[in-house]
Design goal:
The protein is an alpha+beta fold and about 300 residues long. The protein is built from seven helices and eleven strands. Strands 1, 2, 3, 4, 5, 6, 7, 8, 9, 10 and 11 form an eleven-stranded antiparallel β-sheet that branches. Strand 10 and strand 11 form a beta hairpin.
């Protein structure tokens, strides 16, 4: 088994992916919008509230990758060897409440981590009519047991936990049926719903989708840093550090920066989302500068 490093940069274009108002509403509800107060977040959770225009949570873009990438192009390793290590999403044009995009995916990087390998899969979402890039995502996959091929080491992202109290702390409790709700967005992996399968891979219960946890944190950061303004969302990046079980309480600590924020999400003392960064779309401070400022302020 091997990583197909010869395919780095090889583009695979998927079938068009469409969404409508209902899809955007379902996603918002599935990542906790309105759970604490049903009268809050109405722009994300309703389409007919008086004097409120429906808006789409920017992290909804992670659902639009469709069939843009083929695992066969990445390598001949077993799917069971893959761990979702991290996710980044950039939005270049505020998402409409309905639309169609064409996912265009390619393996953008491969890193040797010794025992394991890391693959970065980039997906650009192109407007189906204009072919302009609406958003892009980078999925980081850890491939267990596939290291040792001698690539260059992964570059440092410069992230450090700030040595000062968080500017904001957001506490959100997931519900016992959170994964059952989130799976209706399209990810029907039974790891998140079938107790028997969860037990087979070592979990006492089905675990929450990592992208659902990211959605909770992303919504908290957008609310705390940009007053829930979808137009202000530039990019969000997280590392998945530990699994979440539906019903767990998520505590997201947020440190504001000139460009946006850095953040970390915990369950008790356990970090579940690490190395989080948020950059406002109107920010002109380089990302490396924002990380340095957050760590030393």
């Amino acid at each position: 088994m091997a990583i197909h490093t010869q395919n780095i940069g090889k583009v695979s274009e998927g079938a068009p992916v469409s969404w409508d108002s209902k899809d955007a509403l379902l996603y918002a509800l599935s990542v906790g919008a309105g759970a604490r107060d049903q009268t809050a977040n109405l722009a994300f959770t309703t389409e007919n509230s008086r004097d409120i225009e429906q808006s789409v949570l920017p992290t909804f873009a992670v659902l639009l990758g469709g069939s843009g990438g083929s695992m066969d192009e990445l390598g001949d390793f077993k799917l069971s060897s893959i761990l979702h290590g991290g996710q980044a999403i950039s939005v270049y044009r505020t998402l409409a409440t309905s639309g169609t995009v064409i996912p265009r995916s390619f393996m953008s990087a491969v890193y040797d981590k010794g025992k394991n390998a890391v693959i970065e899969l980039t997906t650009d979402l192109l407007d189906a009519e204009t072919r302009e890039t609406v958003a892009a995502s980078v999925t980081t996959m850890i491939i267990r047991g596939e290291g040792g091929f001698g690539s260059a080491p992964a570059p440092s992202d410069g992230w450090e936990l700030p040595e000062r109290p968080a500017d904001l702390v957001d506490i959100q409790k997931t519900t016992p049926d959170q994964a059952l709700l989130y799976r209706l967005n399209g990810d029907r992996n039974p790891l998140h719903s079938d107790p028997a399968l969860a037990a087979m891979v070592g979990f006492e219960k089905p675990i929450l989708h990592g992208l659902c946890t990211m959605g909770f944190a992303g919504r908290a950061v957008l609310e705390g840093v940009a007053d829930s303004d979808a137009d202000a969302f530039g990019s969000l990046n997280v590392r998945f550090a530990a699994p979440v079980v539906p019903g767990d309480e998520l505590t997201t600590s947020i440190w504001k920066t000139d460009a946006g924020a850095v953040f970390q999400t915990r369950i008790g003392d356990t970090v579940v989302l690490d190395r989080g960064t948020f950059v406002r779309r109107d920010a002109d401070t380089p990302r490396d500068t924002q990380l340095a400022e957050a760590a030393t302020a």
